[in-house]
Inverse folding.
């Protein structure tokens, strides 16, 4: 039986001291743009910056307690979650502009890229905080060292490496147990698949149980793996001093990128354009263009939970000595565009959000000038790939057919994950672009995210260059590009 304790969470959020300074609450309307939240690690006032750190946004969250680490950002309820040095959960409400420590009786919190927070209550049962609702899963967890990761829908997966088991838990209790090897785990954005690194490859595990685990054979001793945001690509760092890209659905290797050393960690930006790889245990990081499939530069910076990171598809944020700087990935030689003196001790959280007042002058970033236009990560034919072009065709969209529309569309993604496609489409709409999701015409096709239509190819291309992401032009009704 499902047990939801929404009142506990609401009381915790509203239970901040009345003496805490407040900013004017913001209306809960769709927001546009991107920003970076600077959180003072020692406590104080959180401030908001443009994604390139050049200027601040007139927005503050006062009364922030000391922060040990950030957990997750939930754009659904406009909340950033973190923990203090004592392990207590901190709630930063972006809309209300206030912060408080929540009285949640749980510990060992972890977060997901999609915004959920997981933890364990006093009886070692899993709890999940999502959409401002706290849920306790009443199934008994496997004893010992357990890691919680997101499963499909509202499910949670408990990874118990000591027992070689994945325990899938839903609202109604334990769903199933799946035997897995011991190794590093990577999860797609929405939890419909996770992988386990083995000496011989990647074990692909479907938590729904619809398909048995399958080994994706990888030579060269795989060490680390990360999914693209759409879940279509899997990038694997190998002991063989390279990174290899696999198509998750066909299981085929599509590209290999040689490195001068062995990558010890991987991180991908939310656009799927940039892949960051740490060189061993050093402070050297490779910046990889995942669409052009090349190393753009190598930077010297410490590898930490929040930085380095790419914002708005074009700005590389990193720590340099005691400062935090921003580099422009769209310009040759990656010039420094901003430096925050003495900011290295603070935490930085990239957000796909700005306050309503700041959104008035928002304009999407320019396209990356140093890389030719190519297809997005979910369909890009990297070297060695035979991925065919994807046309719009006559696909029903919200009661209409694309074939009934005329003009040119900008296709920015093709994904097997419908939720991810809808989220990307909504993000584009929030940024002022007329986006929609086209349903697959056949099982091998994905959910296509397109912008348009535009009357001419030149107009479509001009808008595409403003998106700040990879794209290509397709025509409606003509069945081709």
């Amino acid at each position: 039986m499902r047990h939801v304790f929404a009142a506990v969470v609401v009381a915790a959020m509203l239970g901040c001291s009345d003496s805490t300074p407040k900013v004017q609450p913001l209306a809960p309307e769709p927001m546009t743009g991107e920003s970076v939240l600077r959180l003072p690690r020692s406590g104080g006032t959180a401030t908001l910056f443009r994604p390139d750190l050049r200027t601040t946004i007139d927005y503050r969250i006062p009364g922030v307690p000391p922060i040990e680490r950030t957990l997750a950002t939930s754009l659904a309820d406009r909340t950033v979650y973190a923990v203090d040095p004592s392990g207590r959960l901190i709630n930063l409400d972006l809309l209300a502009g206030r912060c408080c420590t929540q009285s949640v009786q749980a510990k060992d919190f972890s977060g997901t890229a999609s915004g959920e927070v997981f933890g364990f209550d006093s009886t070692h049962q899993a709890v999940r905080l999502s959409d401002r609702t706290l849920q306790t899963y009443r199934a008994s967890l496997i004893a010992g060292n357990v890691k919680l990761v997101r499963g499909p829908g509202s499910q949670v997966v408990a990874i118990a490496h000591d027992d070689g088991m994945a325990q899938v838990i839903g609202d109604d209790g334990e769903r199933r147990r799946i035997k897995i090897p011991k190794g590093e785990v990577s999860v797609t954005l929405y939890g419909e698949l996770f992988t386990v690194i083995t000496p011989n490859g990647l074990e692909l595990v479907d938590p729904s149980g619809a398909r048995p685990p399958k080994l994706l054979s990888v030579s060269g001793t795989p060490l680390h793996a990360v999914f693209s945001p759409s879940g279509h690509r899997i990038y694997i760092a190998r002991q063989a001093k390279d990174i290899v890209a696999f198509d998750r659905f066909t299981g085929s290797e599509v590209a290999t990128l040689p490195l001068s050393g062995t990558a010890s960690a991987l991180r991908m930006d939310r656009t799927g354009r940039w892949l960051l790889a740490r060189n061993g245990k050093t402070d050297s990081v490779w910046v990889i263009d995942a669409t052009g499939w090349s190393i753009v530069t190598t930077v010297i910076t410490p590898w930490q939970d929040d930085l380095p990171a790419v914002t708005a598809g074009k700005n590389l944020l990193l720590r340099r000595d005691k400062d935090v700087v921003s580099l422009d990935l769209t310009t040759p030689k990656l010039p420094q565009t901003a430096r925050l003196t003495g900011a290295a001790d603070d935490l930085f959280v990239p957000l796909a959000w700005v306050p309503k007042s700041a959104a008035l002058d928002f304009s999407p970033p320019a396209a990356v000038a140093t890389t030719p236009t190519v297809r997005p990560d979910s369909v890009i034919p990297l070297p060695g790939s035979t991925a065919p072009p994807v046309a719009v065709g006559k696909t029903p969209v919200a009661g209409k057919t694309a074939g009934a529309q005329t003009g040119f569309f900008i296709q920015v993604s093709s994904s097997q994950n419908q939720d991810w496609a809808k989220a990307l489409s909504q993000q584009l709409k929030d940024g002022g672009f007329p986006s929609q999701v086209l349903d697959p015409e056949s099982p091998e096709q994905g959910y296509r995210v397109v912008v348009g239509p535009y009357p001419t190819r030149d107009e479509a291309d001009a808008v595409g260059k403003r998106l700040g992401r990879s794209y290509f032009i397709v025509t409606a009704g003509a069945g081709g590009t």
